[in-house]
Amino acid sequence: METKWLILSAILTVIAYLLGSIPSSLWVGRLFYHTDVRDAGSGNAGATNTIRVLGWKAGLPVFLLDILKGWLALQLVQIYPEGTLPQTTLHTMQLILAMAAVTGHIFPIFAGFRGGKGVATTVGVGFAVFPIPTLIVFGIFILTLLITRYVSISSLVGGISFPILVLVFFQPLTTPQLILSLLVALFIPLTHISNIRRLLKGEESKFLGKKKKEENDDDK
To answer: According to the model, what pLDDT value does residue 213 have?
Structure first.
């Protein structure tokens, strides 16, 4: 890759991180409710905790904005002139942008590096690259949530099923795209380790249900 494209790629990666760092839950909470959602509930700056603390009217816009962050970050590859880079290189850049955006959500520079768990932003990434598999996963998430009422279980089931659905519904698949789908399946369980521990102990809180001994932190 030429130096000018390497420089552009580095700039776009920073922009993707900054997009991911937009603290939508904090802005909505402070602007309309004069509340920092990190001071209540699970303490995470995510859509789930926003819904838990401030209700659906606040949480739904946060959820959609967090999805939009991930989707917009992946659209940055459109800046490269058509035919400039090989398709596999562009897909590799999408992988890098996805990681940058999700990292921004988890460790947002605009919010003292205290963010959410990145699930909604990952959904946005999925819609940008794998729209049909992501839509199916979203349906699986909702169905699992209705059955179990655990956001953590729903996120785990959706994340683990993602690469399988990508393989089934998205072909041909380049190596960077395959890696991206597998990273999603790895990323979701890693960010929900504490939830898994509470599930095993029977201490996990159900979504909008009666709280257990510890606060849930399965936020998006």
So the answer is: 45
Q: Is the pTM value of this prediction over 0.85?
A: yes
Rounded Cα gap, residues 207 and 148, in angstroms: 9
- Compute the CA torsion angle 186, 116, 124, 29 (nearest 10 deg): 170
User: 170: which residues sit within 8 A by CB, 6+ positions away?
Assistant: 130, 132, 133, 177
pLDDT confidence of residue 214: 43
Q: Give CA–CA dist 84/98, Å, rounded.
A: 20
Whole-number Å distance between alpha carbons of 205 and 194: 12
Written as one string, the DSSP assignment of 153-201 is HHHHHHHHHHHHHHHHH--S--HHHHHHHHHHHHHHHHHTHHHHHHHHH
- CA trace torsion 13, 19, 20, 22 (10° rounding): 150
* Max Cα-Cα span within the chain: 57
Domain boundaries, the chain: 3-201
What pLDDT does residue 26 have?
A: 95
Residues of the chain scoring pLDDT < 50: 210-215
Decide: 1 and 85 in contact? Cβ < 8 Å: yes
Residue 27's pLDDT is 94
In 58-68, which positions are buried (b, 16+ CB within 10 angstroms) versus exposed (e)?
bbebbbebbbb
